Amino acid sequence: QLHRRGFRCLHGVDGSAGMLEQARSTGLYQELRLCVLGTEPLPAPAEHYDAVTVVGALGEGQVPSTVLPELLRVTKPGGFLCLTTRSNPSNLRYKAELEAALGQLEQSGAWQKLLAQEVEYWERATSEEESTQGTGYISGVVYIYQKCPVPHLEEG
User: Which residue ranges does the record assign to the Methyltransferase type domain (predicted)?
Assistant: First the structure.
């Protein structure tokens, strides 16, 4: 979808060499690097990207919410971050942790929330207990933030 909307310079990271190989086979990425989010720094200089997305990885037992400052580090001032998480019962504790961390960064002036939108049919449920009200799907949330510009210091 990003490519279809004009985004042509796509870089990706994943902790799995197999997933990187699948991504490479699409021909959509200019750069793919092995990186375990939340345990090592992203392989990019500070303020490098106009937009950073993390879709399908922010969840219980996956990428810790402590990754947020690292995502901010590689985003240009005024740049955008699009993050997602699931709202299924087994992810509710993580979601609460994530939202607390998102809020703390907003309170500190690091970024501004532009959107937090629930998506009812995020993905197919793998069990009936995870299904949202018996729909066969679990819900999720899309968050979009804009990194705040660095304030200019007065000279003199």
Answer: 4-82
Task: Say how far apart CA 117 and CA 126 lie, in whole Å.
Answer: 23
155 — pLDDT class (breaks 50, 70, 90): low
Please name each of the domains of the chain with its CATH number: 1-34 (no CATH), 44-147 (3.40.50.150)
69 SS3 class? helix
On whether the pTM is more than 0.70, the answer is yes
| Contact indicator for 122, 138 with CB cutoff of 8 Å | yes
Query: What is residue 151's predicted lDDT score, i.e. its pLDDT?
Result: 61
Contact 32, 24 (CB under 8 A): yes
Q: Is 80 exceeded by the pLDDT of residue 152? A: no
Q: Please name every residue paired with 123 in a beta bridge, in sequence order, or none if there are none.
A: 138
Spatial contact of 56 and 84, defined as CB atoms under 8 Å apart: yes
Task: Dump pLDDT digits (tens) for 26-46.
Answer: 999 999 999 999 999 999 999
